Amino acid sequence: MKKKLRIGRIFLYVMLIIGALICLMPLYWLIRSALMDMSQIFQRNPIVWIPKPFVWTNFGDALSELPFNLYFTNSAIITFACLVGVVVSSSFCAFAFSRLKWRGRNFWFVCIMSSMMLPYAVTMIPTFIGWQKLGLYGTYYPLIVPAFFGGGAFNIFLLRQFYMTLPKELDEAAIVDGASYPRIWAQIVLPLSHSALIVVGLFAFLNTWNDFLAPLIYCSNDKQYTVALGLQLFKGMYNARWEYLMAASAVAFLPCLIAFALGQKYFIEGIALTGVKG
Amino acid sequence: MIIFSYTKSIKEVICYMFKRLLSVLLAMVLCLSLTVTALAESSDVTLKFTFWGSTVEKKAIESSIAKFTETTGIKVDTMHIPTDYIPKITTMIAGNESPDIGYLSEELAVDWGVEGKLENIWDYMKDDSELKVEDYLDNAWYKWDTDKAVGSSTAIESYIITYNKAAFDEAGIDYPPTTVDTAWTWDQFVDVCKKLTYDANGNHPDDANFDPTNIMQYGVQVDTGIGSYMSFVYGNGGRYITEDGKDFGLNKPAATEALQNIADLMNVYHVAPTPVAAKNIPEISTALQTKKVAMEICGQWSLLDLGNNENLDFGVGVLPVMKDYVTCIVAGATVIFKTSQHKPEAWKLYKWLSDPESAIDLFTSGLWMPLMKDWYTNPDLLARWATGNRAHPDGYVDAVVDTTLNHSMNSPAYNVKHYGEINNIVAAALDQVWLGTKSAQDAMDEIAPEVNKLVDGFYDTSKNF
Amino acid sequence: MFSAARAPARSLKRSGLETQQAHWGVIFALPAILGFLIFTLGPMLASLVLSFTDYKPISTEINFVGLQNYLTLFKGDDFFFYKSLRVTIYYVILSVPLAIVVSFLMAMVLNKNIVAKGFFRSVFYLPTMVPIVATAMIWTWLLDPDMGLLNETLRMVGLPTSKWIYAENTAVPSFAIINLWTSGGTMIIFLAGLQGVPRTLYEAIDVDGGNAWHKFLHITVPMMTPTIFYNTVMGFISGFQIFTQTYIMTQGGPNNATLFYCYYIYRTGFNNQYMGLASAIAWVLFVIILVITLLLFKSSNSWVYYAGGED
User: Fold this and answer.
1) Distances in Å between the alpha carbon of B54 and those of A174, B60, B76?
2) Which of B77, B260, C33, C180 is 20 to 30 A off residue A155, Cα-Cα?
3) Are residues A84 and A11 in the same domain?
4) Are B173 and B204 within 8 A, CB to CB?
5) Is B43 at the interface with chain A, CB within 8 A?
6) ipTM more than 0.90?
7) Is the Cβ pair B24, A85 closer than 8 Å?
């Protein structure tokens, strides 16, 4: 029995390490390219694995080519606002679609889901015209306000699924005790679904941080640009500064990494469910 | 009891709503402050100018425009659009936020002129004492009718050969010729390429043991973009659409021969990397420097990178000739939008941008070529950009300046109606030609019926290409 | 309400509960409903109407053309429609099951007590966090048939190499593989789902004398069906809308082998400026996705288990 476990374990770790290597390889490529001169990036025969010399200045140069400090601030504002909006709003709304029975629930759920099914390219212009008529072109409102109104169909859907895995007995017990639905939401459902909430938060952070199309469309001058948009600049139309692009991308992705590292600590294993008797 | 639980729950709801409202308000306040700062800037005449380009171009354009503002007092709000230029500008225009003046891609420029969205620049030139249409290069204009132009190209670009001198020295071959009269014939060119191509064991393509899967150095890399292959199609007497504007041109013998010749370099003679690798080497100067390729057939804008590469000793030469010498001109356009409220000021900026003096760095660095004829013919002006700097080696004036002035033709984007849609079909079919899975004749014949549905002649019927 | 106080306690509670639910249901859902009505419905209807016109974004004239756009597509007058549809469906069929199975297995592995759990979780999620502009270019280099790392590695190990995204028959599978690399998000969702499976259930199996396989089949999979369902539906919805990779890496080539549907819409609407036609193309996709999603939801009644009970 013990021997079987051992082999099983070893196999597991081998698979994990191979998988990790596959995931890390492109990242290694990114960092390696960020630290070299452009001429070395494309060298084959042999491929330059370790930069010779380490061009640390790429980071400084890339970040000063464009006003990245401004971009970081802009990105931070938008991302934080969206994060708050999405987490609060989607956790609130998903409750209605999972644990409450009300007339029109399925109809509205289908409507909300349908917002994900039409490609952005064809709603982009009508949406833009709508915001422009409100006089909000050139502001961050179009990027932030929708986050507070439901926070995205995929988040509502995700949380709905999670809420539906929580036993109905919990609700019923609370109602017997005289709790109202908002209390049930806040004090029972939310705490039990914190893993899902963290996931929603992480995705919201990530998607907003890396989104470049929406800021591009709604910014009216380039002082409003975000980090993701700034990165695009290094690509240019005909020639790209790859070493700067890689360096800037590496820096841009650090906040995401930090957010994730912090979030994943709360993925606590095995939620013990007390209070559920047969 | 129910009422009691109701009021209790209402209190809770209000509590939660309030907390949420607070965060909404916070976000709104932040946004408002941003809006206020954004709005505060637009009080006097301020032109809105949109453009694209790498960081080098961005800097040069912005400093050029800063000088413009100093000189004329007209403020310009420059908006650099790093990606998705077409959706951004389309959205702006659809939403009534269009810029006054800006760049426009070649696929859209003429079409938008036809749709009435752009000013006819020639109208402005009629009334202008300083600048005349004749001052410009003949092929600089994007015209949607014989006397209506949406504008000139932003700058001129044409196709040339660049090469690594060391590779030629090693093989003991003379450098590529720099004048049209001494240009290589296609066969001579292929020969030179063969001598410059070798595999890991030093074998050349004609040797018995040549291993095409293990090539150390290619003789040449050919850009498979439209400017590149059209240079040769035109040179061989072919056309994108026929001269009468009625038929697809690329499936006619003169064109297919040119296309096949290029494809054969890659798939038959193995002197050029397959388009796969070509797409994958974005950095021409590295390919030359590391001697992965000895020569490049590329757009002259590559000189910017070549000039910046201290480790590369390079030269420029004329393209090989199939029948006649032609180099193809490709570029985006600079236009003034009809909805502009400040047209006289926009015109001033337009003139400023056309004058090489205003952004001389973009020319000395090798990125752009001037729009004005006298910068090609006047020795003093030539000396300002085309000689004496790293980006423009000896031979540039003959190989590039002269050919662009006297032996050039526009890319089909300038004048062929529905070029964008036709090219969607053509480009996809050409993939097979470059990959060697179909002959040029077969691939072009196959798409001819589809293309012919779209062929509708030229915008400016006084030209036949 | 006062009259209801006189009714028997049991039915009072039930009808009171139902009213409460109906009451709160709407309140809780209100932000999302408002969001839909304000931000989504308008543009969706606008694009539907535009699909019946010859709208070009910059032109001032819009003409109503009825079903012309749709007929153009279905009759095959647009050269690319059917090809694009086929290519996209092929991609979805390849990539969605692959991503789900692999992510699920990875999540199971990462849920165990292994050394450096946090490290491995971060590593597998990493690819999704790298900005797409960098990812796409890195993959273009890695997949270079002549000089790229993937083929180099295959050569070293003696396996046959592939032309990856540069040949018509290997292009779509290559994208399915790249999609796998970025399926860290799917994995995280599975992981969160696994956290929610009560340990007491596993302990019950131990008590009954079952082994790991029983645990997997009778506890894990059934309890995970809500998450599997989510990832399947979302996999289809986003799979059909793959865009950025083809936009940056292949622009629809070689020879339209990767002319994915959303890129085709983008090109028709923006590069060619036929926004009316593009809207029609988009609505065809909408209908397809809607039908598939509804079918999936219908089928979920038979295979998805919600501990919270169906309603």
Assistant:
1) 62, 10, 20
2) C180
3) no
4) no
5) no
6) no
7) yes
